[in-house]
From TrEMBL:
<protein>
    <submittedName>
        <fullName>(salmon louse) hypothetical protein</fullName>
    </submittedName>
</protein>
<feature type="region of interest" description="Disordered">
    <location>
        <begin position="299"/>
        <end position="340"/>
    </location>
</feature>
<dbReference type="InterPro" id="IPR011990">
    <property type="entry name" value="TPR-like_helical_dom_sf"/>
</dbReference>
<feature type="compositionally biased region" description="Acidic residues">
    <location>
        <begin position="305"/>
        <end position="316"/>
    </location>
</feature>
<feature type="compositionally biased region" description="Acidic residues">
    <location>
        <begin position="328"/>
        <end position="340"/>
    </location>
</feature>
Length: 340
């Protein structure tokens, strides 16, 4: 290996390490230097595409991925799957299929098996969205779901996709069975990690859950459609502990309690609280999802105004929490009770 090759490899490795540390500025600098030495290096192009996506430059990222594929078409399935996510319809399907072809030639270790399963999940999703008008959409969707589960029966996203398909078909019992199986694979462990991290005084989102954020959001929505409000609440509670600056989770908590309030009005106060909390979080950390914000207003309108007695109770609780003297009093009372 020549000196330039060693330098390029070192820069690429440094960039990968910087990305793992979320130091995108440093990673970008390393990749720019690597591409200056060789602007046709596929891995450097792929890593650069990732950074471009993080920066919202989707079109430019697609160019880098296409170039990486053209240079090294038979090696590296990841670039195919990333590009497929940036594409739609038949084009996306074809790119996923090529990525699967590359992937299936590799040794079937746990990482590759999960990647293969998730690729089939993405294909199944295409047949419920972009390709839903295809004459063979249902057949191909079932085939993709089966391939996903066969590839990795322990993949929660594969079983979640199965639940979604049954829900579309209004096969509610089958949907609940598949969703319960999916949640059993990750939700108890997720709650345990959140609880342990709380005790340790920190929550590391990278280590918290193997199921991606978007899939957890989708899981909550599926649970709501299946009226599994307990599971929806458990997922949202964990996500709030993980990061309380995301509008979506407060909104989904509020929506969950609003749906519960249709059978029990005692849940209305909780629903109002979480929906209003979503609006407060939006004011400091705005979401681009205006449709969601409109739905929050609609739900609050359906719930109606807070009764005066509930307002007073909430204010009393907030005042007690905000007053440090009450903390000391509570501690003393607790000690007295223990002594007695």
């Amino acid at each position: 290996m020549g000196r330039l090759d060693r330098t390029r490899t070192r820069l690429r490795n440094n960039a990968s390490e910087s990305i793992n540390r979320y130091d995108y500025f440093e990673a970008q600098g390393c990749l720019q230097k690597a591409l200056a030495i060789n602007n046709d290096h596929p891995k450097a192009l792929e890593l650069s595409a990732f950074l471009l996506l993080e920066g919202g430059e989707v079109e430019k990222a697609g160019e880098f991925l296409n170039k990486a594929i053209a240079i090294q078409p038979e090696v590296g399935y990841e670039k195919y799957f990333t590009l497929a996510q940036l594409s739609s319809g038949k084009e996306s399907l074809d790119i996923y299929s090529k990525g699967i072809d590359v992937l299936t030639r590799l040794k079937p270790d746990s990482e590759n098996i999960r990647a293969l399963s998730n690729a089939y999940v993405s294909i199944a999703e295409l047949y419920t969205t972009d390709l839903c008008d295809d004459p063979n959409a249902e057949k191909e969707c079932v085939k993709a779901i089966k391939s996903s589960v066969d590839a990795d029966g322990e993949n929660p996203e594969a079983l979640q996709m199965k639940a979604r398909f049954h829900l579309i078909k209004q096969e509610f019992d089958e949907a609940r069975t598949a969703m319960s199986a999916s949640l059993a694979l990750w939700l108890p462990a997720y709650e345990n990690v959140i609880s342990n991290n709380q005790e340790a005084g920190s929550v590391d989102p990278v280590e918290v859950c193997a199921v991606p954020y978007e899939s957890r959001i989708a899981a909550v929505k599926l649970c709501l459609e299946l009226e599994d409000f307990d599971s929806a609440t458990r997922i949202c509670d964990g996500m709030v502990e993980e990061d309380d600056t995301v509008v979506d989770t407060w909104y989904l908590l509020g929506w969950t309690y609003q749906l519960r309030s249709t059978n029990d009005e005692d849940y209305k106060s909780n629903a109002r609280y979480y929906l209003n909390k979503a609006k407060v979080v939006h004011s400091s950390n705005p979401t681009p999802d205006l449709q969601m914000m409109e739905h929050i207003d609609e739900l609050l309108s359906e719930l109606g105004p807070e009764p005066e007695e509930d307002k007073e109770e909430v204010n009393d609780v907030e005042s007690a929490i905000d007053n440090p003297e009450n903390w000391e009093t509570s501690d003393e009372e607790e000690e007295d009770q223990m002594d007695s």
